[in-house]
Amino acid sequence: MYILLFTMPHDTHIQNLRSAIRVATLAEETSVLTSLIAKVDLSPDERQTIAAQAVKLVETVRSSTTPNIVESFLSEYGLNTTEGIALMCLAEALLRVPNAETIDALISDKIVPSHWGQHLGHSGSSLINASTWAWILTGKG
Predict the structure, then answer these.
(1) Residue-number span of the structural domain to which 118 is assigned
(2) How far is CA 56 from CA 6, 37, 45, 63, 113, in A?
(3) What is the pLDDT along the chain (141 residues), one digit of tens a residue?
(4) Least enclosed by CB within 10 Å: which of 39, 50, 75, 83?
(5) Which pTM was predicted?
(6) Pairwise CA distance, residues 103 & 95, whole Å
(7) Is the same domain home to 79 and 34?
(8) In the listed set 63, 84, 102, which residue is the last one of a domain according to the structure?
């Protein structure tokens, strides 16, 4: 696979990847999962161990009373705010942006018109508050 990646022209490689993503996006879920499960080839004991670890992780997360960083971030920048919607649009759109020029324009379009200052100091998380300062400075750039 690596030989193919490095020998094919960059544009062709990108087009092939985008085509594969489009096909996978529209694929029927059951057949995709069946195919992936067959490729993994785990023993029943391995599957049981994985399932037990997954249950343990879910129980740990559900029993925690302290919000994690993602929960704190979503609490401050929920989808009921202009800023939360801007960040969600950025997160989703940046996955498909083809070049740095377009990325800069997209960030400017989403960050500049928002009111980041109204979020300063609202969160108990220093990381969230630092992020707020970063968005303010990005919007002024």
Answers:
(1) 69-140
(2) 42, 22, 17, 11, 43
(3) 444 444 555 677 888 888 888 888 888 889 888 888 888 888 999 999 999 999 999 998 888 887 788 888 888 888 898 999 999 998 888 888 888 888 888 888 888 888 888 898 888 888 888 989 988 888 875
(4) 39
(5) 0.51
(6) 10
(7) no
(8) 63
